[in-house]
Amino acid sequence: xxxxxxxxxxxxxxxxxxxxxxxxxxxxxxxxxxxxxxxxxxxxxxxxxxxxxxxxxxxxxxxxxxxxxxxxxxxxxxxxxxxxxxxxxxxxxxxxxxxxxxxxxxxxxxxxxxxxxxxxxxxxxxxxxxxxxxxxxxxxxxxxxxxxxxxxxxxxxxxxxxxxxxxxxxxxxxxxxxxxxxxxxxxxxxxxxxxxxxxxxxxxxxxxxxxxxxxxxxxxxxxxxxxxxxxxxxxxxxxxxxxxxxxxxxxxxxxxxxxxxxxxxxxxxxxxxxxxxxxxxxxxxxxxxxxxxxxxxxxxxxxxxxxxxxxxxxxxxxxxxxxxxxxxxxxxxxxxxxxxxxxxxxxxxxxxxxxxxxxxxxxxxxxxxxx
Amino acid sequence: xxxxxxxxxxxxxxxxxxxxxxxxxxxxxxxxxxxxxxxxxxxxxxxxxxxxxxxxxxxxxxxxxxxxxxxxxxxxxxxxxxxxxxxxxxxxxxxxxxxxxxxxxxxxxxxxxxxxxxxxxxxxxxxxxxxxxxxxxxxxxxxxxxxxxxxxxxxxxxxxxxxxxxxxxxxxxxxxxxxxxxxxxxxxxxxxxxxxxxxxxxxxxxxxxxxxxxxxxxxxxxxxxxxxxxxxxxxxxxxxxxxxxxxxxxxxxxxxxxxxxxxxxxxxxxxxxxxxxxxxxxxxxxxxxxxxxxxxxxxxxxxxxxxxxxxxxxxxxxxxxxxxxxxxxxxxxxxxxxxxxxxxxxxxxxxxxxxxxxxxxxxxxxxxxxxxxxxxxxxxxxx
Lengths: 371, 383
What we know:
The structure holds two protein chains of two kinds. Chain A is α+β, with helices and mostly antiparallel strands. Chain A contains eleven helices and ten strands. Chain A folds into three domains: 3-116, Acyl-CoA dehydrogenase/oxidase, N-terminal domain (Butyryl-Coa Dehydrogenase, subunit A, domain 1), CATH 1.10.540; 119-215, Butyryl-CoA Dehydrogenase, subunit A, domain 2 (Beta Barrel); 218-370, Butyryl-CoA Dehydrogenase, subunit A, domain 3. In chain A, α7 runs antiparallel to α10 (338-351). By secondary structure, chain B is α+β, with helices and mostly antiparallel strands. Chain B is built from eleven helices and ten strands. Chain B is globular and about 75 Å long. The N and C termini of chain B lie far apart (55 Å). Chain A binds chain B through residues 249, 252-253, 261, 263-264, 266, 269-270, 272-274, 276-277, 280-281, 284-285, 287-288, 308, 311-312, 357, 360-361, 363-364, 367, and chain B through 275-276, 278-280, 282-283, 286-288, 290-291, 294, 311, 314-315, 368, 371-372, 374-375, 378-379, 381-383.
């Protein structure tokens, strides 16, 4: 066992400790009731250092990487924590990659939980490709003006958005504070009770230093950041799926019908095994993505590895969630049962940043390009 | 003499790869069916000359004494190159059995003849009424003083028509309390009077396995291995890390490669429905390979495999099966034609994939039995 593995186990243990103190399922239920982000839990997560993982040391963070973030995300998923940590991690990863001073200052504020940041990159709901940017930035009298639209932005309540736009034909990333004149945030509800934002930018006026980076560096920060988001989301889905498997096998073992535990019926035993297999596959797919980051793979290789992890995680978690409801019987369809709370998170995360079908296409396309 | 275990893994892999490329006959690569002994004999006799019949056996018994990590590489490289399988039950089962439980006399008599292929061993486990429920076997070995008298029937014995010897699980104590008790391990010369071998033709039209009938067959007393009535325990103990290979991704990788070649030549990748199905298969195989490596790491670290390795067998074989089914779909209206189908400058035999995949979910412990094992031993679901 290496030091880093020990470190990750300790990290997982401390997140599990947090989850014992702060009931994730209860928070997820409150979120569905419209309570919004639980600031107390969010602050506790910041205190634990969960928002410092991807923040570089020079910005006051821990300067750790995707392997650590994945461990945290998986453990939070296991507790059904509804907080937008994966979304914020994606934005943090992109910010850190820009290497700019302004990004560093913002990262410092995200690390202690005082600022929420969201990456606003997607423009078409059916086309989660970061390189397709229609937003325009132009410089007028030393001032930048950004116009365009973004969709499916989370966390919707972000204090600052990191917005991609084309500047003189080159991709660029801009910091757009929520209160900026000309920015309209239109929210709509997600099935887990959180919100997703659409941004309308109408001649949003920014100072010149709002631009974090331009050209291929901007696209690299964006695409690699999204690959981080995909991997971290896949880890969270694994945690959720693992918990659903446990809930379901526990239920099968304790529920009695016809005078016997229903786990004695072979058809149910085999279905439970099928879910176990899917969960193991999620872990295999996640491991290769994490390893790609560890090994410093090329941008295309990271994108492909992340797509592979997300394709598996999305499909497998959905299957596990649906089967968990079925194996619980009628109680599984009630609001009272925990399976449904997990299922809602699974629906949100498996669609977020592109569903399994989309990522299979991207995996294939990137493979062909490599060949 | 080369100390193979002292070589780096990469160096050893390159050595094996280079040797196969230089020496293995091209026409025997990736056979579309299990080859008969006369077809693979020259290759395996040459391996025997080099002392490479039994890479995993200890050196003192004539093996190469490779450590688990090197054995894994040896097998992976053979799979990768499409080397035809030998009638290897002597190497894989009888040798390890005798090394562990055999008498000195048995070892001296049998092990050298396994190594030089003078004896070709076949397996006598399954019976018509003892398949998944193997412990219900009824072939009986009655004590007749200085020998056993065997009566009964074995089935699904792979290539018994090429074998010289069979190792049997036979009931020596019909009154035992539990059916797993009272079973012994016997070594039997297939030339003994009273033995009849009848090949079974399979769906693909090949005679790959046989029925073996025993009618008052006399077996010398000293051809029982280990203690009487301990056969079941010994058979279970023999299940080593070989179970890993039932979950190897190689069959699926090879099948996917063939389907890809066919699909590319026929322009099928432009069909979005096919492309999505193909990508699914590609990911299923990639994730299988990743999971296989995680289990292989455990073997390399010298750990024993747990019951959880059963899921790998399920996923490997069901993935192979799905690829095979998709291949026949890809063939469209030609899916019913036997032999190779033209695909660009080449031709691809898709039906051999299909027939190759069908039994994989049945043999080596059917996938339903594997699911039973996982439910009980891994998920610990109450029965």
